[in-house]
Write a structure and sequence with these properties.
By secondary structure, the protein is of the alpha+beta class. Helix content is 13%, strand content 31%. It has helices at residues 17-20, 72-81, 105-111, and strands spanning 2-6, 28-36, 42-45, 50-53, 64-70, 89-100, 116-123. The chain starts with a strand and ends in a 33-residue tail after the last strand. This is Gamma-glutamylaminecyclotransferase.
Length: 156
């Protein structure tokens, strides 16, 4: 099992969460909530209002999200879903655990690291330069006060 940190439309209550609980795509087990140890710019961009974490460490906010344990099948699905490696790149990032629900072996592994663990995160280095000038968010909600509702793939 791999650990994945999701910060956008794949979180609980967001438009693409349905894929995280679709066992036909593989297994994804919610482990807890966290935030990036480094600051990153989280922007909402493009005509479909997609959330992107720009891979510019030290700029922006500590981005909040959810930690999942996923099997190889789900990881492969997420790579395809996220357009990896063209649109997003899957990289290891240090995530500070804010709230932990994980059971069994994985719980002990993060405790030893004082609440910080490495997770795969889909961020991007392939973005138009003007995105750096967009507003930075510390948390994503498709129906947030930013007024930029995510456009589902089936509606594009």
């Amino acid at each position: 099992m791999a650990r994945v940190f999701v910060y956008g439309t794949l979180k609980k209550g967001q438009p693409n969460y349905k894929y995280m609980i679709n066992t036909a795509k593989g297994l994804a087990k919610f482990q807890g909530r966290g935030r990036t140890v480094e600051k990153y710019p989280l922007v909402i961009a493009g005509k479909y209002n997609i959330p992107y974490m720009l891979n510019i460490p030290g700029t922006g906010h500590h981005v909040a999200g959810e930690i999942y344990s996923v099997d190889d099948q789900m990881l492969q699905f997420l790579d395809e879903f996220e357009g990896c490696p063209d649109m997003y790149q899957r990289t290891l990032m240090r995530i500070e655990v804010v709230e932990w629900e994980g059971k069994g072996g994985t719980g002990e592994t993060w405790a030893a690291a004082e609440g910080v663990m490495e997770c795969f995160v889909y961020s991007t280095t392939t973005y138009p330069p003007e995105w750096v000038g967009l507003p930075y968010h510390d948390s994503y909600d498709s129906s947030g006060k930013h007024g930029l509702s995510y456009v589902l793939r089936e509606s594009r």
